[in-house]
Amino acid sequence: MPIDVEAVRSHYPVLDRELDGNRLVYLDSAASSLTPEPVLAAMDRYYRWSRSNVHRGVYPLAEEATDLYEGARGDLARFLDADPRGVVFTKNATEACNLVAYGYVRAHLGPDDVVLSTVMEHHANLVPFTQAAHAVGAEIRHIPLTEDGQLDLEVAQQLLADGRVTFAAVVHVSNVLGTINDVARLTEMIRDANDAAVVHVDGAQAAPHLPVSVRDLGVDSYAITGHKLLAPTGIGALVARPELLDRMQPFLTGGDMIRDVTLEGATWNDVPHRFEAGTPMIAEAAGLSAAIAELQTLGMDAIRAHERAFTAELLDALATVPGVRIHGPKDVEIRGSAVSFVLDGIPPHDVGAMLGSRGVCVRVGHHCTKPLMRCLEVAATTRASAYIYNDVDDLEPLVEGIEAAAAFFAR
Amino acid sequence: MSMDDLYQEIILDHYRKPHNRAPSLDGEAVHVHHSNPLCGDEMDLRIRVADGHLDAVVFDGEGCSISQASASAMTDATTGRELKDALDLAEDFRLMMHGEGPSRPDDLGDGIAFTGVAQFPVRVKCALLGWMALKDAIETHERGANAHTVTHEE
Ligand SMILES: Cc1ncc(COP(=O)(O)O)c(C=O)c1O
Which of A176, A327, A344, A349 is the best residue to mutate to test the B interface, defined by the most B CB atoms within 10 Å of its own CB? Predict the structure, then answer.
C-alpha cells in the first residue's frame, strides 16, 4: 500500500511547528529522523509503569523490563532477518563499528593481513579500522569511486587479487552520495578471494530506508543506529553472526557480561550478553521496538517505493536550479534518499543558513566523510535527505530557498 | 532566525568584494594556514612587518561568506597597527563574538558589523577564523618563526 503521508505526519508533533511563520520542512533525516508518538509512548510507559532494572530481578516489574529489553533484541533480529543471538545493543552505530575493530580486528589480524575499506566511508566505519590496522601492522586498501559515485568493483577485484584481504568494512548506503552499494556481490568477491575473510557492513543509512536481510547479504556483521530509524538516541546495535561474536574479545567489561568472577579474574557470559557490560538502555530498547513496529506497519517495500519516487522528483527539481551540481548517482534505482549538492560559487554554510531561515532543515558540511570530500574536490556540500514524512510539497520550499540563496549571495 | 540579523549589508559587501585578498605577499614575514574542519573553512594569512608594525596583511582562502568577509574587514582594521595593538584588537573582537560589548568599536572598523554573529553560535568560529589567524601570525613572528598551521577543532 502506498504511504499516506498525511496520516504519517500526524504522528510527529514537531511537524506542526512553524519557524518564523514558515512551515517546518525537515529534510535532515540522514542525520537523525524525527520521533513518532508511539515511540515516545513506549518509553513513557516503561518509565511510568515498568521501571526497574533488567535481568536477575524476580518480581514482575523486573520481568517486564527484561521482556521489553530482550523483546527489542528479537524485534530487531526479525526486522533485519538475522539471528537474535547475534544482536548486541550498543549506544549507536559508531560503537558497533568500534566493537568489531577492538573485539575482532585487533585480536585476530596481523602484519600479513589486509583490511579493505572504501573512500566513501563515514568516519565511524573508517577511523576505528584504520586505527586497528595500524595497531596490528595490517595494510589498508580503499576501493575508489566510479564517475557516477559508485564503488569501482573492477578496482576492488584487483585489490582482492592477492588473497590477503582478511577483513573488510564497507558502507551499505552512503550518507553523502546516497549510493546503495551491492554489498552481497562485494561480499561474494571478497570471499572468493579469501574464504576466511570477515565482512563488516555499516548499515546506518540502509536499515531505515530499505528492506534489509542480513542473512541474504551474507555479511558477518552489520551496524545500525536507532536514531536514524525513528527510535530514540542512545541505542544502536551490532547485528552479527553468533559465530563471529564467539571469536571476539570482550570490549567493555563489568557487570552483566560475566559468567563468574573471582578476585583474580573472570569468565565471560554467552554472546550476545558478553558484549553488553553494565545496565543497558532499557527505555530506548522499548522505543526501538515501537519504531520497528511503526516501520513494519508501513512496510519497508512501501517506504523504499515512496522515497524512490520522492527522490526522483527531488533530483528533477534540483536540475531546474541554475548552478546546482549533484554529487552521487542520478539513477534512483541505485541510490537512496540522501541527496548532496553544491551551488556554484556559494558556500554550503550560507545555503544552509538561507534554507534554515525559511524553516527548511538541511545539513551542510563534510558529513563526517573527509576522505570523500577530498575525492569530490569540495570542502563541504549541502545535503537534503528525506524519509516517510516528506512529500512533494516539501520541494517548493527547498527549491525556492536555494534560489533565494543564489540571489542573495550572488557576487 | 532572520537572514538580515546575520548578514548585514556591510558583511555582504566584504564578501562580494574582499579587501586585501591575495595568494602571496612580497616581503612576507609570516604565513599561517588555519582551517575549521567542521565547516570546511580554509584560510591562508600573510603578514609583512616593518618597525614593529603590521605593514601589510593579506588573506586567501575558501569558506562561508562570514569567514571571508570577517577576514576582509580584519585586514582593514589591523593594517598599520603596532603588533601588540593588533593583538589587543583581536582580543576585543573575540570577546565581542562571545557576547561582550567591544571596548574599541571605532578601531574595529567594519568588524563591528559582525556583532550579530554572536547570536549564532555555530557561525562564531567562522567570524573568528581570520582574527585568530592574525593572532597566530603575530605570535609566530614574535617566536622568530615564519610559518604555522592550525586546525580549529570543535
Ligand atoms: C553512514 C553512517 N555511518 C555511521 C554513522 C554514525 O551513526 P552514529 O553517530 O549514530 O553512531 C552515520 C551517521 O551519522 C552514518 O551516516
Answer: A349
Interface of B with A in 85-104 (CB under 8 A): none
Contact B37/A20, CB-based, under 8 Å? Answer: no
Across residues A169-187, what is the average pLDDT?
Answer: 98
Amino acid code (one letter) for B121: P
Identify the structural domains of chain B with CATH numbers, from first to last.
Answer: 3-153 (3.90.1010.10)
Domain endpoint, select from A275, A296, A317: A296
> Do the Cβ atoms of A103 and A80 come closer than 8 Å?
no
Q: Which of A342, A350, A376, A409 to mutate to test the interface with B (most CBs of B within 10 A)?
A: A350
Tell me whether residues A408 and B7 touch, CB distance under 8 A.
yes
Using a CB-CB cut-off of 8 Å, the residues of chain B touching A411 are 15-16
Separate counts of helices (H) and strands (E) for chain B: 6, 4
- A32-90 residue pLDDT tens: 999 999 999 999 999 999 999 998 888 999 999 999 999 999 999 999 999 999 999 99
Measured CA to CA in angstroms, residue A391 lies from A25, A29, A206, A311, A341 at distances of 10, 13, 20, 10, 19
**Domain encompassing residue A332:** 5-28+300-408
pLDDT tens-place string over residues A313-331: 999 999 999 999 999 999 9
A368 an active-site residue? yes
pTM confidence score: 0.93
Q: For residue range B53-102, what is the model confidence (pLDDT) as tens digits?
A: 999 999 999 889 999 999 999 999 999 999 999 999 999 999 999 999 89
pLDDT tens sequence across B102-151? 999 999 999 999 999 998 888 999 999 999 999 999 999 999 999 899 98
Q: Which of A229, A261, A296 is the last residue of a domain?
A: A296
Same domain, A194 and A276: yes
Q: Specify the residue for cell string 588473497.
A: A163
- How do beta strands A236-240 and A221-225 pair? antiparallel
